[in-house]
Amino acid sequence: MAILKLERFSKILGSQKVVRLVIPDQICTGKVTVLWLFHGLGDDGSCWLRKTRLEAFLAEKQIIAIIPDMARSFYQNMADGQLYQDYLLNELMPQLQKLLPLSLAPKHNYLAGNSMGGFGALQFAFKYPQKFRTVFALSPVVAFNAIKPFMPDLNSVFGSNYLKIIYKI
Predict the structure, then answer these.
(1) What share of the chain is helix, strand, coil (3-state, %, to 5)?
(2) pLDDT digit string (tens) for 72-87?
(3) At 140, phi and psi to the nearest 5?
């Protein structure tokens, strides 16, 4: 397995961003299946490598995992103007699909997210069902009043009417 930490400048976000790629030693010819992994609120993309058996799973399945660091964005365009969802869909995904032999076919793209990433995964499942074969939401954040005490920046993500906005997604 190769674990790559790619640091790149995002034109959409106007800052340096990190994406981790976990690539099997032997990649079959042709386009490769992808598992997109979304991290939780208190973590970054390294959590999938530090806290799971991801490498063993990927080695067995011969697929690539792509793990973008998405800060505290909930994988959406934030009310404060940071366009994380646009970055992911319109910049990062297309660029990685050009750089690597990644399949564009929905049947070869899977998405999983934990906590905040689970919310993001559900959001993508509902908004972009044509992009992924399967979406897994592991302990997704859905009770936003419960996280308000430890996320004082919630309004920067969703705006001051966050409960109304969230439940329209």
Answers:
(1) 35, 25, 40
(2) 999 999 999 999 999 9
(3) -70, 145
Question: Is the pTM of the predicted complex or chain greater than 0.85?
Answer: yes
Long-range contacts of 41-49 (CB under 8 A, 24+ apart): 41/72, 41/115, 41/116, 41/141, 41/147, 41/151, 42/115, 44/18, 44/69, 45/18, 45/19, 45/20, 45/69, 46/20, 47/114, 48/20, 49/3, 49/20, 49/22
Please give the Cα distance from 62 to 64 (Å, whole number).
7
Q: What are phi and psi of 16, to 5 degrees?
A: -75, 140
Cα–Cα distance for residue pair 78/82, rounded to 1 Å? 5
Give the whole-angstrom CA distance, residue 71 versus residue 52.
Answer: 20
Tokens describing residue 159 = 């705006």
